[in-house]
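Ticket #4471: structure export looks truncated?
Reporter: QA, pipeline team
Priority: medium

Steps to reproduce: submit the single chain below to the structure queue and open the exported record.
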Amino acid sequence: MVEYFYRSGKDPLDVGDEQLKKTLSRNHDAYVSFIKSQEKVLLIPMRTEMERMIKNQEQIVSFFNDQVLKANKSLLEHQQVQTKDINESAKIIKVLYEDREIKRTLQQKFVTILDTYIKNRENLGSFKTREKEELAELARKQVAEM
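Actual output as written to the record:
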């Protein structure tokens, strides 16, 4: 525009200049036609491709979410089954441990009874058979009470 005013020697403040109005109008029309041609050539196809790409990505995300949800659900079910199995195993181990402790205490009591029997039998000597029989009966009774 500066060149126009410089070449023509006209005043830029003169609003009644018809040649200025025509030049501005032509430049405006040229810009609009350029933008429209760019829109047809570039912008509309780009927008169409972007919309198609967005739809495809939405489908991919939806499919992925479905797969992840199924996998998470399956994983949760397997974890629950494993938790249940672990709890049952813990109960069985506890019962086995208790049985082992009972067996150990019974063995200790039996060893104590047997040691007492052997000691008392040796103290009686070989002449008192009646007392030996009573001692054997007492040992049997103590073992039976265990």
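Status: closed, not a bug. The export was complete when the record was re-opened. Leaving a note from the reviewer for reference: The radius of gyration is 53 Å.
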